[in-house]
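Slide 14.
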Amino acid sequence: MRLAILATEEQKNEIITKKIVEKETTLVFIKNIFEIKNYSEFDAFFLLTEMVPSLEPEAVGGKPVVINSVINTLESAELPSNFSRTIGWPGFLKREIWEIASNSKTATEELFGRLGWGAVFVKDEPGFVAARILSMIINEAYFTIGESVSTINEIDLAMKYGTNYPLGPFEWEAVIGIENIYLLLKKLSDTNNRYAIAPLLEEKFKEFTRSQLQ
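Slide 15: predicted structure.
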């Protein structure tokens, strides 16, 4: 089996740690979709960078295509039946189980079975499950800081030792990135007030945005 994987260096480093069941599987990492000269040479495509270039469905001959799209759904993007989406945020690709929303569960399930990678199929909704939960926990941690209930270090320690989380909320934020967290919460809060963004998180995102412009 031969896979084309469009990935950042960080994503590549996470994927290569994963074991592959099917022998003679070749992972071809690319930094640009135009590096692929002949789509027919590949059995599936993982397009995991945040900015996925346009790809004509006909070009891949209906073969499975897995994209990194945490916020935008397959339905909203009007993607064809061979497309699936997953969470490509930092730290997620090396997990034993990937969350997948798919227009073709059977084909995608077969692909992940051949790879030996765990996959759980969820509804095609913004944020999936894990990204929503982590974003909400991080957001609540910012509310807690804003109300002077505790400190960043104390909250991280309480979550790790009190709930057995591998990382605390602010440690997770450092891994995932404030931009990813904010944009997901903004999307979710547009239709549900329970995802309203904490003032301190909003302030930190604005500081991040200003720093990117300098």
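Speaker note: The two ends are 45 Å apart (CA to CA).
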